[in-house]
Amino acid sequence: MNEPVLEKLSYYALNYEPNKDSLLEAKLCFFDSLACALLSLRQNNVQKFLKLPYLSKGEYKVIGTNIKTNIIDSVFLNGALIRWLDFNDTWLAKEWGHPSDNLGAVLSLVDFAKNSRNLKISFKNLLENMVIAHEIQGSLAIENSLNEVGLDHVAFVKVASAAVTSRILGHTKQQMLSTLSNAFVDGQSLRTYRHYPNTGARKSWAAGDASARGVKHAFISEISEETYPSALSAERWGFNDVLMHKSPLVLERELNSYVMDNILYKVLYPAEFHAQTAAESAIKIHQQIKGRIADIKKIQIFTQEPGVRIISKQGELKNYADRDHCIEYIVACCLINGTLDSNSYLDEVANNPLIDNFRSITRTNENEEYTKLYYDLSKRAIPNKVIVEMKNGDTYSEEILYPLGHKKRRKEALPHLNNKFLNAINNSDLDAKNLLSLYNNDLEKIDIDEVLTNIFR
């Protein structure tokens, strides 16, 4: 008898068919993820990364480049590009993560299935697999906290990518169960590289790495179908006893399209999502105190408990990865400059002495009501309040409960998401006219071959 969690994931991945509304949300998510990948190519560190010496020649492509490599490394690089800027979609629950991290696997496997397996796959099929990957990663995150035991959320990326790869390849239930059990048995990443004093660029490529490992397990299951039926619950040696300790992995909720339907977008600010409303609040205050920035005496931030635990930092911030995960840095930068973009974390910006000065006079605290709103699945708020006290006693306060990328603000966000996509394609080496035509086309009219032709160089 296999694990109930494995059985549930397997049945869902093999049989679920999303409705049109969910596919339309997935279409928006697809093009937003593509924009994130193209924007990342402007970073010098990304260009260095694309020249990894071990990459072998092959026929599978990488977004926005002329690289052709093997299928596993194409998944790795596509996932890394989508994730690099911390600008792709987000999911917040007991565990956090970015479900579009799985698009690297979906995209490369669609290319593989069409060209190496001669399978008939449409753009609609690609979006179906996005919905399924989002649901698997996001649902596991709703009920289970990896961070509490020091593990990284990319473990759930690995499982989701493994499942959709198995589905795309047309696997049997046995092969799907083999793939999933291997993904859980596989070694899991520690969160070390996301926290002081070890914060580093691995957080930009960790999900691509996990996704590629999930894909690898799916291919292995075609040769070796052995399933590990108690991969989770085996005493002493199973996933739960070894890694989860007193909180064994559960999956009680019904699997459908809830995660894709309620996904959070990073619309304007490439920053850790718990700080999105803090950035927006600080920019509103900036507009009220232009010309008087140097007269700030005290800054207070009230946030949710995860915001305190994950991104409230004191002391030296060593690099880009440290800064885009520091709520005090983000607020200081927004108060000073009135904006926040991917360049805001570069050394030349961080060297402004006002930033560290403002960080030193900032106090960040949990608001318990914000924490309740955060964990309430009917609301899914990500609240922050920023209060700035001036030297003359004037006080400015801004509170925002729902970020621009929230489902409740989707209509307001759409023009900004459109601009994000236009900015990405107009400054890329791809054919912006053709990509814009695909972006604006009806779902049923988008041809997968046109998509694959136009997103690679």
Set out the fold topology.
Elements: H1 4-15, H2 20-40, H3 44-49, E1 60-61, E2 68-69, H4 71-83, E3 91-92, E4 96-97, H5 103-115, H6 123-143, H7 154-168, H8 173-185, H9 202-220, H10 239-244, H11 258-261, H12 276-288, E5 296-303, H13 305-311, H14 320-323, H15 327-337, H16 347-350, H17 353-360, E6 362-366, H18 368-375, E7 384-390, E8 395-400, H19 410-426, H20 432-440, H21 448-455
Helix pairs in contact: 1-7, 1-8, 2-4, 2-6, 2-19, 4-5, 4-9, 5-6, 5-7, 6-7, 7-8, 7-9, 8-9, 12-15, 15-17
The CATH topology of the largest domain is given as: 2-methylcitrate dehydratase PrpD
* CATH-level-4 superfamily name of the largest domain: 2-methylcitrate dehydratase PrpD
Q: Order of SSEs, N→C?
A: HHHEEHEEHHHHHHHHEHHHHHEHEEHHH
Strand content: 5-15%
Low-pLDDT residue spans: none
Mean pLDDT: 96
CATH top level assignment of the largest domain? Mainly Alpha
Helix fraction by DSSP (H/I, runs of at least 4): 40-55%
How would you describe the shape? globular
- State Rg: 22 Å
CATH architecture of the largest domain: Orthogonal Bundle
Number of helices: 21
Strand order in space, largest sheet: 6-5-7-8
Describe the structure.
The protein is an alpha+beta fold and 457 residues long. The chain has 2 domains: 258 residues, 2-methylcitrate dehydratase PrpD (Orthogonal Bundle); 128 residues, 60s Ribosomal Protein L30, Chain: A, CATH 3.30.1330. 51% of the residues lie in helices and 7% in strands. The chain contains 21 helices and 8 strands. A 4-stranded mixed β-sheet has the order 6-5-7-8. Helix 2 crosses helix 19, helix 4 runs antiparallel to helix 9 and helix 7 runs parallel beside helix 9. 53% of the residues are buried. The mean pLDDT is 96.
